[in-house]
Automatic annotation (TrEMBL):
One of its GO terms (cellular component) is extracellular region. Coiled coil: none annotated. It is found in: Secreted. InterPro entries: Glyco_hydro/deAcase_b/a-brl, NODB_dom, Polysacch_Deacetylase. It comes from Oceanospirillum sediminis. Pfam families: Polysacc_deac_1. GO terms for molecular function: hydrolase activity, acting on carbon-nitrogen (but not peptide) bonds. One of its GO terms (biological process) is carbohydrate metabolic process. Residues 88-359 form the NodB homology domain. This is Polysaccharide deacetylase family protein. Keywords: Signal. Its main location: secreted. Residues 1-28 form the signal peptide.
Length: 359
């Protein structure tokens, strides 16, 4: 009887350990990193560009360090169904379907047989704008393993209201633009998009609701790992252009883990003009993060104070001290993993308009 009790105790202990291991592994492997590019050129606006040599360095790094490049829609399906992913999964995306992507990125991706996504706004393509790919070039993108996503008909900002619009008319206009873009992509490319990229990375509650209603998985440009801990209508992507084009910036991003967020209590995405100090109360699930090592900053790189909260569930409060400027207000946090050099990431965005409602 004593031996049986001892065996039972050991078995229970092992099952607990296995459960913890499986839980941690599942959490760590239910995410992926999505990279966002626009121009692949050294002759386009630097803040939105990665020269071809930098882009090749990025692809070389992925290959040399054991990363698997997956189609973005495959990652989305895994996240939606809560199925695991391999530990080093990356997706490559391009916003706006610029011609430099066809000229400088496509040959490299095709040679390496790497899948990728191009988010298309149909209007400049239909008008034959020289900065954008043509329909024939987009067909070649598809033949070479590319997926086509949507940015709406004109890549309109999803939050800004036109000067003549009344409240409620913005969403009607955006709905029409998304529907017309779908029709154009179906007509010229025979594809029905399942993925959406928010122009300028900006969204609010109404636009995210619209993206969900249209059946899209949506992606912004706020940093972090795509996972079930973010809304499927507003998943993060790491920008890989501008100052982020240096390959030395890639490792910390590619190793990012999603902070397991249970809930966020915060003001609505479009702030009042006089609200310079937005707050966010973030509640977490338990995990392998070190919350005392949490570090947060705003989109300008200025530290944002955080206050750990008492209670049964781990949580922290974010509040700006210096006041936030007009435009995108982003709070970006990292917390170290307790057993490795990796970091957990969390992002939260608002938009602060000026007194006239612009930004």
């Amino acid at each position: 009887m004593t031996r049986y009790l001892q065996f039972s105790s050991v078995l229970c202990f092992l099952l607990v350990l296995i459960g913890l291991f499986v839980s941690h592994t599942a959490q760590a492997a239910r995410h992926a990193v999505v990279l966002q590019y626009q121009h692949i050129s050294d002759r386009t606006p630097p803040s939105k560009s990665a020269p071809k040599k930098n882009f090749i360095q990025h692809l070389d790094y992925l290959e040399q360090n054991g990363y698997q490049v997956w189609p973005l829609e495959k990652i989305v399906k895994r996240i939606k169904t809560k199925k695991s992913l391999p530990n080093k999964v990356v997706a490559i995306t391009f916003d706006h379907a610029y011609i430099s992507v066809f000229e400088n990125a496509l040959p490299e991706l095709a040679r390496r047989k790497m899948p990728f996504t191009v988010f298309v706004a149909a209007e400049p393509v239909m008008k034959g704008h020289p900065l954008y790919m043509s329909w024939e070039q987009l067909k070649e993108v598809i033949r070479q393993g590319g997926t086509i996503g949507s940015m709406g008909l004109m890549a309109s900002n999803m939050v800004k209201r036109l000067p003549e619009e009344f409240p409620g008319e913005r969403i009607k206009r955006l709905t029409k633009e998304l529907e017309l873009n779908e029709k154009a992509l179906k007509k010229y490319l025979n594809v029905t998009p399942e993925l959406f990229a928010y122009p300028e990375g900006q969204s609010d509650e109404q636009s995210r609701k619209l993206v969900r209603k249209m059946g899209y998985a949506g992606f912004g440009t706020h940093p972090g790992a795509a996972s079930r801990f973010s809304s499927i209508s507003f998943q993060p992507r790491f920008v890989a252009t501008g100052t982020a084009r240096n390959v030395n910036n890639l490792p910390v991003k590619l190793s990012a883990l999603p902070l397991p967020v249970r809930s966020v209590k915060a003001e609505k995405s479009l702030l009042r003009h006089d609200n310079k100090y937005p707050e966010a109360l973030v509640e977490l699930y338990s995990g392998s993060y070190v919350l005392t090592g949490l570090r947060c900053q705003n989109s300008a790189g200025i530290p944002v104070p955080h206050y750990l909260q008492s209670g049964k569930k781990p949580s922290f409060l974010l509040k700006s001290k210096q006041g936030e400027p007009i435009g995108t207000v982003g709070y970006y946090c990292t917390a170290p993993h307790d057993k490795s050099s990796r970091f957990y990431w969390f992002s939260y965005n608002w938009i602060r308009p000026d007194a006239q409602g612009n930004w």
